[in-house]
Amino acid sequence: MKTFLLHQLYPRALSGLPLLGTPEATAAAYRARRGSLRSRAERMIRPHLALAGTTGFVTGLGGWLTMPLTVPADLAGVALLQLHMPAACAALAGHDPDEPTTREEVVACLLKTDQGARTEEEEAVERVTVKVAERGLRYLGRKSLEWGAAAAGRRMGGRIARGVPFLGGAIGAVSDAYNTHLVARHALDTFFPHPDDADSLPPRGTSDHTAA
Question: What is the pTM of this model?
């Protein structure tokens, strides 16, 4: 996972994503706005959450047969968004996202949990496991809808059956948006730990990293 995130996806996130641009450009668009830095960062992450949900919906439409294609696409696409988001937060807080210490802090936002921090290998396994589990939920839900369609009769059953292809998309959208929300919360707490006086915070790394 370390190679996957740091050496492949992180540089791609820094080079810019569709609809978002680079983390520095994203941060620059919010730097001149009113409010504390944290409140601006909270507004800045909303497009990331929306895009993560959209990515989860689109890639979740496929079933088991398309899983070898859709799961890697979803994992990479959402991970890119989740790396871009704290990198933009870091830039808004006055850091250089390309600086190694900042890069480690950004990646750490993806590994944190309420119980502590996962290793990158554990994170990789968990992400894949979640996506496989989503396909299982879709299968069970599809079978339930198909049974309901048969029981409801031809007219009502046809309406129910038309919703089956979108079940996996809905599950993927909710899952990816929620996980991205958790990363966003860690990013805000990492780069803007004092919401009330966030505007007065010095750039991280100017003192602490130098002293280290």
Answer: 0.70
Q: What is the DSSP letter of 35?
A: S
Rounded to the nearest 5°, which phi and psi values hold at 21?
75, -160
**Domain locations along the chain:** 2-126+169-194
Map residue 113 onto helix, strand or coil. strand
Taking a C-beta distance cutoff of 8 angstroms, is the pair 192, 198 a contact?
yes
Q: Give the pLDDT of residue 89.
A: 97
Which of 61, 83, 104 shows the shortest CA–CA distance to 17? 83
For the segment 2-18, what is each residue's pLDDT rounded down to a tens digit? 556 666 789 999 999 99
- Would you mind telling me the total number of residues written for the chain in this entry? 212
Tell me the average pLDDT across 171-196.
Answer: 88
Angle at 104 between CA 78 and CA 6, to 5 degrees: 55
Report the C-alpha gap between 19 and 211 in whole angstroms: 38
Beta bridge partners of 117: 112
* Three-state SS at 116: strand
Q: What is the pLDDT of residue 111?
A: 85
